[in-house]
Amino acid sequence: MRPFNVDQVRADFPILTERVHGKPLVYLDSANTSQKPESVLTAMDDYYRHANANIHRATHLLSERATALYEGGRAKAAAFLNASDTRTIVFTKGTTDGINLVAQSYGRSTLKAGDEILLTWLEHHSNIVPWQMVAEQTGAVIKVVPINEAGELDLDQYAALLSSRTRIVAIGHVSNALGTINPIKSMIAQAHAAGAVVLVDGAQATPHLVVDVHDLDCDFYVLSSHKMYGPTGTGVLYGRASLLEAMPPYQGGGDMIASVTFEQTLYNQVPYKFEAGTPNMAGVVGLGAAIDYLAGIDREAALAHEDAVLEYATAQVRQIPGSRIVGEARHKTGVLSFVLDGVHPHDAGTILDQQGVAVRTGQHCAQPVMDRFCIPATIRASLGIYNRREDIDALVCGLHKVRELFV
Amino acid sequence: MSDLTDLYQEVILDHNRRPHNFRVIEGATKQEGYNPLCGDRLTLYVAMAGGVITDVAFQGSGCAISKASASLMTDALKGKTADEARALFDQFHAMITSDHAGPTADLGKLSVLAGVREFPTRIKCASLAWHTMKAAVAHHSDAPVSTE
User: Which residue of A174, A275, B46, B135 sits 20 to 30 Å from the alpha carbon of B34, by its own alpha carbon?
Assistant: First the structure.
């Protein structure tokens, strides 16, 4: 493992030398999607050049190579989450797909009318809508844990909302809109005491935090490769083996079966039961390379670096007249959401883009969070391991340009 | 490279700060418009008599481009027939989406928004009020109009 050095890390990400509108790229949109290191690009290119064939299906050498790489990716994902059993790792298209899988397979087969699904106000639309759909199908009821002015969950309300009717608790590990880190370990224990199973949306957590599903004792944990320096279109669902085994398949197709006749089909064992069709093999190879990349750096030091940049950004943006930071939780990572008096975030986004600064502006697929703070949108600067103070200086310089035009 | 001052001309910034016809018209046809990408929301009020738009106004929140576009549109629509309003929609839409620079039709004060065509991510902002107007004039249902 090499010591963390941001300049060295930056050199690993080819896109960071790109120029946009004639300016050096300042990428502050990693919560949207992260950039990819050379090793991920190379692994995927090598896969297609030297190993591409369909997995689990053929007797030839390339298929053996592809299968070994794909299943190697599963072992890497298991190690990444400290899951002891590779059978608990299901490859998906991403976090959204993982949540839909759990909602439609576990949720639809177990929920009854009047059962409760507990969500929070911080959730991304992808951890709301799949539950609304399954609630509609089963007659289950959705309850929502409120948040305070700082953007932290109201844990008293959480405890009060948990009851014997609660069947599923679905919580984000880290809020995509505000960056709040939720105390999920204690929340999971509370949910279990109430008899509920817990799904954790880890999309925004895995790029920053070391995740240990064994220690968390969660029932499901979902993540997206593309948020953690891997390719798009690939994700992981970790599920407790006993739950996955009891769950019906989500989609039918090839590879998820043991035997098919027109009279009866026997399903394959887990995790293959949940991986119908030819999967995103190059994506899994890329994800594996991203996991290797993260394993190769001192993650504790990387997080300390990111936290220092976030703290610097918070202080710098706070100094801009008319700025208001949205989401000031005590425990945050990776995200600075804010508004500027007299400036709509969308206008700020265009002007920042012209300075080479890429941020996201809008609702961040978290309309309830925006409604909670009575704002239509925010400007969101989000960090990856490659960001540094200079990026924040460029952001602040761009924000002064925005104010020149508008205020 | 497109220049920011092409997009944010002084006239646009003025309309953003002090939008014209930013009010409610009681009893007028009311139409909601919404752009989920950026959260822009507006309510358009169109009063018509004898096939002619007698008054038009809007309320809502949005970026400078969407507000200025709505403001300029309300100024331009008064006294127009429904057909003329639809024709203006087509001309305006062509102006903000055409690939090649240069004037398309002479749209008077509306032409300050021509710079939007250099900023593809902002075309929906400029067209939100116009799509809403088209629906209002057609006496569509109350379902919000979306530019998505």
Answer: A174
* CATH number, domain containing residue B87: 3.90.1010.10
Residue B7 near chain A (CB below 8 Å): yes
Residues A290 and A369 sit within 8 Å (Cβ to Cβ): no
Q: What's the CA gap between B74 and A290, in Å, rounded?
A: 53
Enclosing domain of residue B113: 4-141
Each residue of B47-57: pLDDT tens digit? 999 889 999 99
Please state, in angstroms and rounded to a whole number, the distance separating the CA atoms of residues B136 and A36. 46
Interface with chain B: mutation pick from A347, A352, A364, A379, highest number of B CBs within 10 Å: A347
The residue of chain B nearest to residue A355, with distances taken between CA atoms, is B4
In this predicted structure, which of A146-150, A253-257, B82-86 has the lowest mean pLDDT?
A: A253-257
Is B96 within a domain?
A: yes
Cα–Cα distance, A267 to A248 (Å, whole number): 9
pLDDT in tens, A173-219: 999 999 999 999 999 999 999 999 999 999 999 999 999 999 999 99
Nearest to A226 by CA among A286, A278, A168: A286
Mean pLDDT value across chain B: 88
- Please pick, among A218, A365, A374, A397, the residue that the annotation labels catalytic: A365
CA atoms of A135 and A91, how far apart (whole Å) = 25
Q: How far apart are CA B104 and CA A272, in angstroms?
A: 58
For the residues A55-62, what does the mean pLDDT come to? Answer: 89
Domain assignment present for B52 = yes
CATH of domain A6-30+298-406: 3.90.1150.10
pLDDT at B147: 59
CA A289, distance to chain mean position in Å, is 17
Q: What is the pLDDT of residues A256-298, one digit of tens each?
A: 888 999 888 999 999 999 999 999 999 999 999 999 999 999 9
Find out whether A105 and A239 touch, Cβ atoms under 8 Å.
no
Lookup: tokens for B62:
């949005």
3-state SS, one letter per residue, for A176-215: CCCCEECCHHHHHHHHHHCCCEEEEECCCCCCCCCCCHHH
Q: Does residue B74 belong to any structural domain of this protein? A: yes
Q: Is A151 on the interface with B (CB under 8 A)?
A: no
Tell me the pTM.
Answer: 0.93
pLDDT given for residue B142 in this prediction? 45
Domain boundaries, chain A: 6-30+298-406, 41-295
Number of H helices, E strands in chain B: 5, 4
Q: Which residues of A touch B41 (CB under 8 A)?
A: 376
Q: In this complex, is the C-beta atom of A143 within 8 Å of any C-beta atom belonging to chain B?
A: no
The verdict on a CB contact (< 8 Å) between A405 and B36 is: no
pLDDT at residue number B1: 42
ipTM of the complex as predicted: 0.85
pLDDT tens track for A226-238? 999 999 999 999 9
Q: Are B31 and B56 in contact (CB under 8 A)?
A: no
